[in-house]
Amino acid sequence: MSEYRDYSSISIQYIGQVGLICRRNGFNVAIDPFLTGSEERLPDSPPSFWVRRYEPPIQAESLTDLDLVLCTHEHSDHLDPETLKAIAAASPACQFAAPRACLPLLAQIGIPTERLQALKVGTPLECGGSLIIHPIPAWHEEREVDEDGWDRYLGYLLDWDGIMVYHAGDTLVTEKLIESLHAFTIDLGFLPINGRDLFRNRLGIDGNMNAREAAGLARELKMETVVPLHFDLFPNNSEGIAEFVDELFQRYQGQKYHVFQPGEIWIYMKRK
Asked: Gene3D superfamilies recorded for this chain (predicted)?
């Protein structure tokens, strides 16, 4: 159909929690894939606290075509050793990129050094011929930077041949975050909306922006479409989806959004 020639597209599959698989121009990227039941074995958690609402929508062993895996930080729902070990075997040419603090963990599960890349704010990563990845600082309660200037928590801006995708990882909304993103025109913004509170903090659970803040950030940065993440997998670490949708409806009429179902593949199209 000739009218589609006027559009660029990207395929995005939602695989649970904050996990995505993005495919464009023959290059395939997974972000924070989490596809096992390893959360049930987390130390120092109350019994039955981490209970999935649904099983992983795909198997890590089936991901045989990945070129790159991005991890935003070392928490196990973002860097799951069992998932990443299976992906490394299924896609033997796949590279793994993450904050520098994550590299020892990736090496421990047997991923060779030559397949690992440390990412740093201010140092873009070029890959796939048409993809530039800009590491963005994240405030998972706080921004943590080591003595050499490497962030513990990151988000990623994927500048992909005319389509700009922002994956926030885990972060609060801060003025500094807004400042770091204002230079970019974001087509797709993937934001956590599970929030934070004292009682989760007592259990060692670091928090994120809530639904109202995520909606406000999308409007502040003029994101074309905003997508909520981090709300549907673990009931004990969620504030639901209703407030996010209502906030957009009541306060930000016209702001586009998309709510994924687990395993769903969505083709986003942008006029050239």
From this structure: Ribonuclease Z/Hydroxyacylglutathione hydrolase-like (3.60.15.10)
Pairing of strands 95-99, 116-119: parallel
Mean of pLDDT values over 93-121 = 97
Confidence of residue 42 (pLDDT cuts 50, 70, 90): low
What are the residue boundaries of the structural domains of the chain, listed by start?
2-271
Count CB atoms within 10 A of the CB of residue 50: 20
pLDDT tens profile 196-242: 999 999 988 999 999 999 999 999 999 999 999 999 999 999 999 99
Query: Are β-strands 188-192 and 163-167 bridged in parallel, bridged antiparallel, or unpaired?
Result: parallel
- Give residue 110's region: left, alpha or beta (phi > 0; psi -120 to 50): left
Identify which has the larger pLDDT, 271 or 148.
148
Angle, vertex CA 59, rays to CA 54 and CA 64, nearest 5: 150
Domain 2-271: top CATH class:
alpha beta
Indicate the burial class of 199 (C-beta count within 10 angstroms; 0-12, 13-18, 19 or more). Answer: exposed
pTM above 0.70, yes or no: yes
| Phi and psi at residue 257, to the nearest 5° | -150, 160
Q: pLDDT band for position 75 (50/70/90)?
A: very high
Q: Which of 173, 190, 192 is nearest to 241 (CA)?
A: 192
Contact assessment for residue 252 and residue 266, using Cβ atoms and an 8 Å cutoff: no
Q: What does the DSSP 8-state code read for residue 204?
A: T
The owner of tokens 């934001």 is 191
Beta strands of 90-247 (E only): which ranges?
A: 95-99, 116-119, 125-127, 131-137, 154-160, 163-167, 188-192, 225-229
User: How far is it, in rounded angstroms, from Cα 183 to Cα 166?
Assistant: 13
CA 23 to chain CA centroid, nearest Å: 15
In the beta sheet, which residues pair with residue 136? 155
